[in-house]
Design goal:
10 strands, four-stranded antiparallel beta sheet, ubp-family deubiquitinating enzyme fold, mainly beta
Length: about 110
Amino acid sequence: MVRKDIQPRGKSHLCELTEPIDLQLNVKGIKTLYDAFRDYTAVETLNGELRYQAEGFGMQDARKGVTFQSFPPVLHLLLKRYEYDVQSGAMVKVRVTCVLGKLLVWF
């Protein structure tokens, strides 16, 4: 179960629980799978043009984050190994090594 939180500044936070189907994890600039999970769950500050539209309050600065409540028996991890290159207008492969470590149990 994944919990998505958004907390507009000075307001109570909003929460949504969803079942994870596939997790798309960044690998660019990431050394281990553990770091990829940490990046996925990092709290993001929404301000400027990225402000949160709070119903009844208009555009608000907010903090947005994701936490894992539980995992299903099988979890699909998609490593983002391609990214869009603005200069060439094409998808290019991200060439990095991501260490799996002891985070996974292999069957």
